[in-house]
């Protein structure tokens, strides 16, 4: 497949915003037909849904499958509710996701923001919150999960629906990427750390009295947010009674990113050729140029 161009270029102002705040919202930058073309592949991914408890989440996510993410404290309330379903590494099993990650405008946009000559694909993720989903996405830092060492690592978040704060727009702690603290990866629907991992606990910024500035962006298809992998972020459930919140998140690396195992974070079978401390290889396919 030919590479698909963005509808416009990334501006210098947007590059500066990304590096200053650790996140930028790029308005109307993805072709609408490209975004719409991912609706069917998302449904295909969801149709293989495996019901999984949180304890099974790591296994389900590792295999390119989809897990239903359940916060037990919410589940026990008995209230009628939607579902939060998520998976990773769909690019390994669905050609449309591979093309989207490698041939869409995303890698070029990432190269501009990271100011990197090369961009590699680390992983993708489908993140669907059906209407009435009470599960939040807890505050977490992507780098805490990634078996990576480097400064040029980021996550792109592509909405397939109009998304508002009440529907689970991602909320970012501005400037948190500037902090070099090593955080523990969390269980994702809460700030609870994955057992066996090391580092600082990610604070629940909603409960903290402090100076943190949290921003989110109401987005529509065609828009894209990109955050640095150290930027701490979260999202509410989807309080809409009728509207779905479907998103694809694709995570990329830039120049000089090395493999570094994070103890306790799920490993990826297809990363078996990567060597601790060495530059990445084709296990993380070259996406740009
Ligand atoms: O979509 C969500 O609720 C969270 C997304 C996220 O944390 C990510 O893609 O890094």
The biggest sheet, with number of strands, parallel, antiparallel or mixed sense and barrel status, is: 8 strands, antiparallel
Q: Low-confidence spans: pLDDT under 50, at least 5 residues?
A: 50-58
Chain-averaged pLDDT: 90
β content, as a range?
Answer: 15-25%
Principal-axis shape equals globular
CATH level-1 class: Mainly Beta
How would you portray this structure in words?
The chain is α+β, with helices and mostly antiparallel strands. It has seven helices and 14 strands. The chain has helices at 12-21, 32-36, 39-47, 54-62, 72-75, 95-103, 106-114, and strands spanning 23-26, 66-69, 84-88, 119-129, 137-141, 148-149, 153-159, 170-173, 214-216, 224-228, 232-235, 245-253, 258-259, 286-288. The strands form three sheets. Strands 1, 2, 3, 4, 7, 10, 12 and 14 form an eight-stranded antiparallel β-sheet that branches. A four-stranded antiparallel β-sheet has the order 5-11-8-9, with no helix packed on it. Strands 6-13 form a two-stranded antiparallel ribbon. 2-oxoglutaric acid is lined by residues 125, 127, 137, 142, 155, 157, 168, 170, 233, 235, 247, 249.
